[in-house]
Design brief:
Radius of gyration: 16 Å
Largest sheet: none
Strand content: under 5%
Number of domains: 1
Number of strands: 0
Shape: elongated
Number of helices: 3
Order of helices and strands: HHH
Helix content: over 70%
Structural class: mainly alpha
Length: 61
């Protein structure tokens, strides 16, 4: 049996783990808010964009 885990489920699990590891004691609903997920996805997009630009400039020789 193949299980499919949604991206948002993985984000929820990771944020719950980081919340416990860092001792933030924030409610899990904070990490499930749209604003937090939008910021999290925007940071990921920026990292991918920077990586793509670096790759493009290094392979342009």
């Amino acid at each position: 049996m193949i299980m499919i885990i949604a991206y948002l489920d993985i984000v929820s699990i990771l944020t719950s783990i980081f919340n416990r590891l860092l001792g933030l004691n924030l409610p899990d609903i904070f990490f499930n808010s749209f604003a937090f997920r939008a910021v999290f996805m925007a940071l990921g997009a920026i990292i991918l964009l920077i990586g793509g630009l670096i790759y493009k400039n290094t392979n342009n020789q």
